[in-house]
Design brief:
This protein is α/β, with parallel strands linked by helices. Helices cover 39% and strands 15% of the residues. Bound molecules: pyridoxal-5'-phosphate (PLP). Pyridoxal-5'-phosphate (PLP) binds next to helix 6. Belongs to the class-III pyridoxal-phosphate-dependent aminotransferase family.
Length: 453
């Protein structure tokens, strides 16, 4: 152990042992992966799934409640919950019933159903914005928000905070390298960096400098960054200043609550009394049935309103898709919000998040480790640093990728699934005390084996 980080040689030794055990216990997943290689790049339906995990992919047989079951018969208490998209737990009865009924009646009409009115109204009640539109995923909700903002402001640029993730679309797939922007991945246009600005989270001076050019159409941010760098909380007063600075610059403000919606009905926007022009949501809002949505103020929505219908001469904003807002997604969202994502269910997952934080913090304190446990309602987790990071650079410095990778496979071998740092560990509304205790026990065992407990 040196400072906050365990001996790398010990981490590597444990990783090799755990990887071997992981592979040996999962022959059927191996067989399926081999079969997949002939028909899909990397042997998986989305090639990047291979690079998300540094162990061979796990093939899944089924899931129920908080539990995931692989094709080799191993069961996992799931704290990744499909990168937060299954916060409702797997197969909640009201959603199964509503979706089955809707599929039997027709999965798609390209015409609205009554459920869409209920869902838009309920999102409005939760997030405090009156008018809503629907897509199939949060990525496309954010894409449409940008197009609406460009159309309204006549400006092209979009501003994000370093460490962000808002989906897989061009404007957002750029990152800071030193003080300049570069494309995050291959396949993007050569000028992809030209319409995007990225500034450090919690850095109001840089934010103001970037907005002062009055070229920025919209700032999109999560209220607390939950993604590529774990969890970054805003400084006190950050959101008030963000609102004031964007207003002064004539820039719109969008909160992406795709992950943070798990903290309670209405997400952090409601909890912290935020006043955005847009809110975007997705993932668990329809219990994992594809649905993205964005809410907006009446002023913003005016750009979409076409009183003259088809013959209205106003230019049409580039929004929409054939399957967006389809009846199955709407039926799922209605059932999820009315019967699964209830106030009581959020309270349950928050209690478990606290239980998890208490357990992790107990292990860390007993081992005398200079690590921080965060408490984020249903979500908890450990930063390998004495204080929580405030921005992406600080978070990356303390990340300790080899230790994170070891943790993942170590927990998986003990029936706990915690796959992506940006999503957890998060307790779904279906999680139990036993799930949380299993997580804490496995984490404690790991700390003990690292030779620091
Ligand atoms: C904050 C946030 N926004 C948007 C997205 C994109 O969601 P999807 O991949 O469902 O489009 C994600 C995905 O992780 C996210 O975390």
């Amino acid at each position: 152990m040196s400072g906050a980080h365990p001996d790398p040689a010990r981490v590597a030794e444990l990783k090799a042992r755990e990887d071997a055990a992981f592979v040996a216990a999962r022959p059927r997943s191996q067989e399926l992966w081999a079969a997949g290689q002939g028909v899909m790049p990397n042997g998986v339906p989305m090639s990047w799934l291979r690079t998300s995990y540094d162990h061979p992919p796990l093939f899944i047989e089924s899931a129920e409640g908080s539990r995931l079951r692989d094709v080799d018969g191993h069961e996992y208490a799931d704290f990744n919950i499909a990168d937060m998209s299954m916060f409702t737990g797997y197969g909640p009865a009201p959603v199964v019933e509503a979706v089955s009924r809707q599929v039997a009646r027709g999965s798609q009409y390209l015409l609205p159903t009554e459920d869409s009115i209920w869902v838009a109204g309920e999102l409005g009640r939760r997030y405090g914005l009156p008018l809503w539109q629907f897509t199939l995923a949060a990525t496309s909700a954010n894409t449409e928000v940008i197009r609406i903002a460009r159309s309204l402001t006549g400006r092209e640029k979009v501003l994000f905070f370093d460490g962000k993730y808002h989906g897989h679309f061009d404007d957002v797939l750029v990152e800071l390298e030193g003080d300049h922007l570069v494309p995050e991945e291959a396949g993007l246009p050569h000028d992809v960096t030209e319409r995007t600005l990225v500034v450090p989270f919690n850095d109001l001076a840089s934010l103001w400098q970037a907005l002062a050019s009055r070229e920025v159409a919209v700032v999109i941010t999560e209220p607390a960054l939950t993604n590529n760098v774990g969890l970054l909380m805003p400084d006190a007063g950050f959101h008030d200043s963000l609102r004031e600075l964007t207003r002064n610059a004539g820039t719109l403000l969008a909160y992406d609550e795709t992950h943070t919606q798990v903290v309670g009905p209405g997400g952090l926007a409601r909890m912290w009394g935020l006043a955005p022009d847009f809110v975007t949501v997705g993932k668990s809002i329809a219990a994992g049935i594809p649905l993205g949505a964005y809410g907006m103020t009446e002023e913003v929505a005016a750009v979409l309103q076409r009183p003259g219908g088809r013959d209205d001469t106003k230019p049409q904003v580039a929004v929409g898709g054939t399957l967006f807002g389809n009846p199955v997604s709407m039926a799922a969202a209605r059932a999820a919000m009315s019967e699964v994502l209830t106030d009581g269910a959020y309270a349950h997952s928050q209690r478990l998040g606290t239980r998890l934080a208490d357990g992790l913090s107990g292990v860390v304190t007993e081992a005398g480790l200079p690590w921080t446990t965060h408490r984020f309602w249903p979500r908890s987790g450990v930063s390998f640093s004495p204080a929580p990071p405030r921005n992406a650079v600080e978070a990356t410095t303390v990340l300790d990728v080899p230790l994170r990778r070891l943790m993942r496979v170590y927990l998986a071998n003990r029936g706990v699934w915690d796959a992506i740092i940006g999503a957890g560990p998060t307790c779904s509304v279906a999680a139990t005390d036993e799930d949380v205790d299993a997580y804490v026990a496995a984490f404690g065992e790991l700390v003990g084996e690292l030779g620091v407990g």
